[in-house]
Amino acid sequence: MISFNCDYMEGAHPLILERLAQINTQKISGYGLDEYCMRAKEKIRAACRRPQADVQFLVGGTQTNTIAIDAMLRHNEGVIAATSGHINVHEAGAIEACGHKVMAVPATLGKIDIDALENLLAASTAEFDAVGWEHYVVPRAVYASFPTEYGTLYTLEELRRLRSICDRYHLYLYVDGARMGYGLAAAEDVDLPQLAQLADVFYLGGTKMGALFGEAVVVCNPNISLSRGLIKQRGALLAKGWLLGVQFDILMTDGLYWELGRNAVRQAMKMRKTLVAKGWASYIDSPTNQQFFVIPNESVNRLKTQVGFDIIEAADANHTVVRLCTSWATTSAQIEELIDAIG
Amino acid sequence: MISFNCDYMEGAHPLILERLAQINTQKISGYGLDEYCMRAKEKIRAACRRPQADVQFLVGGTQTNTIAIDAMLRHNEGVIAATSGHINVHEAGAIEACGHKVMAVPATLGKIDIDALENLLAASTAEFDAVGWEHYVVPRAVYASFPTEYGTLYTLEELRRLRSICDRYHLYLYVDGARMGYGLAAAEDVDLPQLAQLADVFYLGGTKMGALFGEAVVVCNPNISLSRGLIKQRGALLAKGWLLGVQFDILMTDGLYWELGRNAVRQAMKMRKTLVAKGWASYIDSPTNQQFFVIPNESVNRLKTQVGFDIIEAADANHTVVRLCTSWATTSAQIEELIDAIG
Amino acid sequence: MISFNCDYMEGAHPLILERLAQINTQKISGYGLDEYCMRAKEKIRAACRRPQADVQFLVGGTQTNTIAIDAMLRHNEGVIAATSGHINVHEAGAIEACGHKVMAVPATLGKIDIDALENLLAASTAEFDAVGWEHYVVPRAVYASFPTEYGTLYTLEELRRLRSICDRYHLYLYVDGARMGYGLAAAEDVDLPQLAQLADVFYLGGTKMGALFGEAVVVCNPNISLSRGLIKQRGALLAKGWLLGVQFDILMTDGLYWELGRNAVRQAMKMRKTLVAKGWASYIDSPTNQQFFVIPNESVNRLKTQVGFDIIEAADANHTVVRLCTSWATTSAQIEELIDAIG
Amino acid sequence: MISFNCDYMEGAHPLILERLAQINTQKISGYGLDEYCMRAKEKIRAACRRPQADVQFLVGGTQTNTIAIDAMLRHNEGVIAATSGHINVHEAGAIEACGHKVMAVPATLGKIDIDALENLLAASTAEFDAVGWEHYVVPRAVYASFPTEYGTLYTLEELRRLRSICDRYHLYLYVDGARMGYGLAAAEDVDLPQLAQLADVFYLGGTKMGALFGEAVVVCNPNISLSRGLIKQRGALLAKGWLLGVQFDILMTDGLYWELGRNAVRQAMKMRKTLVAKGWASYIDSPTNQQFFVIPNESVNRLKTQVGFDIIEAADANHTVVRLCTSWATTSAQIEELIDAIG
Q1: Domain boundaries along the sequence of chain D
Q2: How many CA atoms lie within 13 A of A326 on its CB side?
Q3: In the predicted model, what is the mean pLDDT of residues D162-188?
Q4: ipTM above 0.95, yes or no
């Protein structure tokens, strides 16, 4: 059965497995201090046009969000996120386990409602001034995902507005890039150097983008220290750190990361076209690899015998919201099979 | 100038200062293991009709909420509170600093919207079942304040509904009783034994109720261990713990605690009557010692030269929401002075 | 029965109780922003000759140590203490509960063995350089108590050596002054301004020095932020903060704090003379208010029917190490009674 | 240049890479709920003869130690470890970052000095009883590594003594098995079922034993909940959890894990024999894959141009302690090359 449940069901791009096999018996020094990591970091810095950025490789998304955000906050400081933000919903309270509040603001289609954010900051600053800042969690960072958990994208203008609000209120801007390759492949007006210029810290996801696992955190703001000691203390300093370096070295070579992103988006658009043609309503207009549709229940029941996908929630008595994802590995043949199944 | 800003501006009931002076040179053993503490605990257990309850004395409200809630939670468990709940807004992220998420639910007049709570729990349980509980913060306790931060009170029926929801979803019910004496003095159908039967843990506030400082936590559910080791570790085990025992011993003798509560409520009702007679709108119908009114700005400006009170927020261009509090120490003369000032 | 078990068994100096009674019905604003606190802070800064120092009032010793040390450390940084240091032994892991390791170094008579400290730092720095700092807890502060848990005192030269080591290894020097008044009363060559010049942060204890409770933290190093937000978050921002201000205001007026210290030391020296004259061996040569002696078991058994004191440990089959403490409140009559009891 | 620096320098056993390549395009569900993980867990339970044990796969050693120990402790409880234990020295304070003290006891050749442990527990229990348990960190678990950081092994009798002490003092016994395969290959009288019967929790290391990465925690004591929620919260729930299942499935098939262990030990014994024959002194008599020798400095300097190894410390002015490790991947040819280099 073909499956479109999520974008981390396959292994790794064949070039990665090939390279791992090639160097399997090489003896490589540990903890990410090897030449593969050095080379991959250099390529990432170049792609971002941030020659001074600090790049660190971590294993997974929750780990990355937690460590990066913890590096930015102190004591009674918190991080603002959309109510639907991954750190607010799906990370089992990892940020709170580091001692920090996630301050939820309203979201539209997964994106922070920027007007609401601005109003909240103005109101809370006034309240803090009146009552005393020491009674409150003081916001110190904004978490935004690109693309969001619903596949949507901030426009360049929206990112610039976020940046400007962050500057005004002394907040760091952190961008969760678990699916960054899909986001930038679909973005109309944002590219990596722009994003790297606007964010204080962000990451390029590997797990969902052709690696077995791994995320590359890019610390653009030199005032933020995402130290190796913090990484180690959180159990996130991989002994064979070169596994991460090797993977990102390959992904960052000859534009592979971006090509993988484009493939997923291309296949998603084909999928989307079919679903729309079938007369099913798009739940959210996502330009990226995650597609959300509202499908009649009988169609859901028939389809799920042939195709894997995720049930999100009941839309009404007769319809269900579902998610179908493509990935870097999705083939045209798989999309054809889906089209046939939809009928 | 008379002041109605809050209910913790005075020292202590004279009987307390008198007793402290009497025993000042007695040598009393430390850390709350003295006879004053023993006696006060016994009186509290008797007043609650919970002879088996564990009673612990702590110094302040944020400390008490934090330690009590931390005692109830484990790893990725969280506590539900009204959006306006003290732990969600005014405690500088103390719960999060212990590693736990405060899960905000909508509130009406300071009280948890019980329907919203029920819907949230039903929905999130379904979502957790579908996606996997390990990805979420699992609610494990409900925080309710009695009276609330807006002076309002849950009815007995509402408390019973909360209890029943807690039972259904395996949640502890924790009641913040910083102003418990004012709440029970005003409550129409809730008394202390009922509250002690419904809550797993609650506290009887002293700081705002005639003590110099101090809160008495009552742990009714024997499965919850609010250990002295936890208290010590959090810097909350007072060396001269007998200071707390002496104060609660006096407050719990001859119904003093309840009399102090009734005084504040009586004076608040006189104040309320005057404000209403003046034609000012009540912002919230509070039966307890905190009164919230919407007052024309020119009246605010005039009044504040004679009377201390708290500005809450602008109601509209011409009106302001203010808070006036009575306390255990408020005298009829002070209320007369306020009435004169209002004119 | 007279008692010499510890130095926090009495209430407060009568002047404090008197003042509290005087202002009991005054309405004073909360959270330590009142004039009493302001005045007390000013007096402390003057006594320390540190006009720029930040002074904060907290409730108890463990709370103070924990918050002050947490303010100095980040992520994988730790604090060095003598094996017998209070934070290493008697605070229920409060520092660890904030996420930081207490790094124990050998101690002699309660004092850090400075040679051992120096060797440890040299060796560990070399090891960290070789293996990588990220694998270790990096020492960032030294905790020293003055006087120590055994009543002993660092000399000025020893404090200077500690300071110089701290400078060399980029460590903060934190001095636990729970009994500072007794220490400075007994010190041959250290005074408060000197101590305030050498330490980055220290505190003047009140609980054991004539206050009902309370400790005054003095932050001399402006790079350390012991913020009110941190204090609040840890449940340590007293609602009636003026209780602390009033007490320290009195203690810091007309040299009362120092006079109380001298009284305890004077009485302790009388006690000591008697014990020595009796032929009992001093366990530790303490010049301060805590005296440790090795006493024949039969004498222990006889004495304890008349006098309260603490059993520390068995010295050998026939002798016991005991502790007898004087305090700010110890009277000559009590010492006479002790002398009679010793016989 | 051949390298014997450590045992995590190679990739994975070829069978693992082969299998990963085979299933690379299969779509496998996430978070360790797949059939590979199920199968690997079953094999581990069978090998341990603990059909009811809970098995969880994690990514690395520090992460595993931290999460397993955190699952065992509450508030002011701590874990006892040898001074040289990995959690006490080389994990950047990861246990403390979870709020718990590592309580160091003296060690001999990396092993807990069991007499010292017993004395410490007896003494501290007496002290806690006298002063009050709430002032202390209460030991609740013992951490022992098998083999230790110095390659040594507890005998069955020693493990039984540890177990019996743990039973007497209500402690959990946790065994760090980062190199378990090497330990059991070398052990004279301990096998896996025995170890699984004595420990409450332990892990079978994969990272150093033929896997790319991964550790398998075995929770034998059903009272300990090492929940998936805790794992997720700590950023340790691998999205492609099947990567761990596949690797342990292969390692646990046809005794591969044990064969890899025996190879490393066999090669280490050849190495050892050569070093001894050369006249160099063994620093520690290790029967496992880590060999520590004291070598004349001129030999160190000569050797290090041809062979990689770790410098541990200066033994004296003319000698250096070095470590040479074999691994699952060490070949006889590599050992021959080493022998030639030693000359």
Answers
A1: 2-7+257-342, 14-255
A2: 31
A3: 98
A4: yes
